[in-house]
Amino acid sequence: MSQLPADEAIVRFKSNEERVDIFVNQNGTYETNESIPRDVETLPSLMTRLTERYLTAVYKGAWQTAHAYVINDGVKEAGVVYLCAQAHTSGTFATDLAAGKWGVAQGVSAFDLADESGSSTIGFIQDAADAVPTTVESELRSRFTVTQLGADNTGVASSSDAFENALAQMPKPGRLSFPQGNYMLDRDFVIPYTGVNGSGIILDFEGVTLTAGANNVKLIQLSDCRTEITGSIKFRAGAFTDCWGIAVVPEDMAQTTEVVNQNFNKVSANLDFGGGLYESVVFQAGPRVSGSDSGCWFNGFTGAKTWGSVRRCVWFKDGNLGAGSGANSNFLTGSNVINGSVNTGVDIEGGGGNYISPITFENITLGTSPHATPVAFRVPNVMLNGNSNNDNEIHGHWENCTLNADIGNANTVVHCTSDDLFNSSGQITKYTDQYRQAIPQKGMVVNAMFNSVTSGANIKGLWLFDEFETGADINDRSTYGHTAVLRDASLAAQAAKFWGPRITGNAFCLTYGDESHLWDTLNHADFNFGNGSTDSAFSIITLVYPTLASNCEVVSKDDLSGSVNREFSFSLSTAGALSMNMFDNSAGSYIGRTTANGVVAANTLNLISMTYDGSSTSAGVKIYVNASPVDNADQQAGSYTAMEALTPKVAGYRISSSGSAERFFKGRLFCTMIVEEELNVNQIRQLSYLLRSYAGGAL
Fold first, then answer.
1. Domain extents for the chain?
2. Is 413:637 a contact under the CB 8 Å cutoff?
3. I need a labelling partner for 609 at 20 to 30 A (CA). Which of 86, 154, 267, 488 fits?
4. Predicted structure pTM score
């Protein structure tokens, strides 16, 4: 090697190729191999020429005849990239090349890299022990994206074609990526059925919003097995109707001739459903064909899920495609939150063994579709094909829902999060753990109540308000069978589920909110404690949690309509005062006792009791709150002889002169007992301890 001046370098020209050999010493001098023929130019000149030559070149694509080229134009011919050395109008490439009008671009040029196969020229190896060398092309092609096939992630144009093309052409098994953005779809995006083992694809949504661009669009229709969906997705209906979010359903949801399966799909993506969707998550199995069941089984949604402004959140759809066509053993875990502008939360019409935990139901109060009464959790007893919707299980929390639960299947399991199960206005169902756990205590309480009186035969009526679903009847636990009936404002029978049923402690109760929640039982001689000449002793025991929102009847036989039929009234005022009156109906007179205001506090648990010795005197009446005597004054008008055996119902309200219900109780009602004996203070105390502890009250 020989040393050159610091401002010089060696340039070698050989045939039609140009190569620059520059050897730079640490001391800033330049060296070259003397054996190489050379021409010498100064370094500044060389740098200027190289800049003009290589940094300002423009790639023109494939070489064309009869085209005007200028210096630094780049073309590709027969797989080789050339640079224009002389301005000219092209004729024949071989002739132009021989004339020195083109030179070969040596090594890997920007043109090579810009070529469709450019990434194949760049090597790649992972920074890890035993890593295998590969190329950038190989690595990039392992990432297959919908935008590579023309999907518009601005949401302006439909991406349906690109989604379908990408799904069809992606490597299988493999991963299809959906880069961040908003994609509009104007038809169902279907992952078609390929068999019970699926095709092994992963759909990776990298912060994506899928928006409907037409009516009746399923934004994702998952009809295959063993597909995995990852990432983060928002589902929106946009301006369109009857659109669904993600449906795990057959491609043809109505066909009955082919066994198809949607099994073992995994959705770990975080999902957000809103924007007016009709359905959000749907499961439906295909048909049974020649004794073989289709499956919609073992599909798992494990990411965080939120719902708002949708019609229904989760629907296990009954396809009515024959026996064995249920969506079974699917699960939704992770965080599940429903909050606002929703008609139906979870609706299990067709399936068993499904598991949802945890889930929060809030503000499910919207509209009349798909259900006339908005409902958080619904499980009919059987499918249309007659199969039972057995063994579904849910762990939930309820707040401000029109109807928390409508459960017709006795094998449903509900786990709730609060002591009184479902919040301040909450309803429970008889399928909760708390209900099942309370049943033994209920039996012991009834037994203890019988033991607290002189004779069990003296209990003429004993009602625990423990009906929680579609029934309107409250069984009489006495030996006489005087069934109480739950009623609405028109006095028609009403299902208990509309009453805000709950459990406090281990005690069952129903919640009275307004005049649409009434109860009564038919008149019977067992409830007549006077014959017009003499009275007989009796007592009333009731466990309540009153609101004191209005003056009300706790228990009465009092009808002011028509000819007037009045026997007795045990009432509570808004000031927290109790009164007990017996009426001599024919004479228009009464006797009784009252209390001071404030003996009953609003929204507190109280055992309210009255006893009467049958003496036809006010002094024979006593009133207790939690076993403490509280009456302090007589109430009497006219000349009283005795109550008469009349026909009013025993009720938690009074019939007004116009024939409508009035003075209805407001608050929680746990139990009521009517006993044909005057209970003493020790018996009252025993019942107070028993019933208040049953309801979790302080003793």
1. 2-114, 205-417, 440-694
2. no
3. 488
4. 0.58
